[in-house]
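Possible regression after last week's pipeline update?

I re-ran a chain I had predicted before the update to compare outputs. Posting the input and the new output here so someone can diff against the archived version. Not blocking, just want to make sure nothing changed silently.
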Amino acid sequence: MTLALTGATGFVGSTLIEISAEAGVGLKALARREQRAQASVEWVAGDLGNKEALRRLVRGSEAVLHVAGVVNAPDPAGFEAGNVTGTLNLIEACQAEGVRRFVFVSSLSAREPELSAYGASKARAEKVVMASGLDWTIVRPPAIYGPRDTEMFEMFRIARWGLMPMPPREGRMSVIHAADLSRLLLALVPGGEAVSGQVFEPDDGRQGGWSHYEMARAIGWAMGRRPWVIHLSRRSLERAARADRMLRGDKAKLTADRVGYMAHPDWVVSDGAKPPADLWEPRIPTLEGLKATAQWYRESRWL
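New output (post-update):
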């Protein structure tokens, strides 16, 4: 089996390459720049704006795993170009090459598109996928963590100092390890009545998710600390976003766009949207996963 993969050089995509190699699954993977050779990967030069490269990517593949996405952009147009137009270009390549199976990694933020430009772009991309005529499945992950992640890494880094600023106290969230998400994506490839045309919200299996306080303490525990957790109001988050923008410019992690969904109280996956248990269940307990992730950060000298 050969699958076409976008987002291969990112956090989830690189994890998916590892899991695919373990499963004996070959990949054709899109990349902007030249990559080191890997036995299980055929690299295809290009990006989501290069329609000919996308046709080369999907040609001869049994299915497409569309993982690539823009998570940070200076304006809504940046999200639109990467998440909506890029998805449309990939769908057109599938249609041209006769590839029917399409697994799309969206985001839980698409559930509340009015809160952020990112979530709105993911919601529009979902509509494009649903209208494509392909054999599609959409996956809306919650917060994803694991080795090589640069987003939740910020929380691990801050936890070293024994202080954890978090969104409002009343908020709750679900999480998932990148390896568990990758196993789900591979499990969805064959399609079938139970998964085709469905939207799934996977997580770590923790009923009711995690409060922001619980997650902060869990990350602190993984770092060997017992942090003081400070809950920030939306106004405080907005001030912090402006400060991050001033300090790190386009590399800021806390952006004004993210404040909208960070302040939202419910980012727990829906029970009715979980993948079928006979197809997939999470394997990695979150406390163990956080501990191993913290260890990876240390060994890789990120911390």
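Follow-up from reviewer: compared with the archived run. The radius of gyration is 19 Å. Marking as no regression found.
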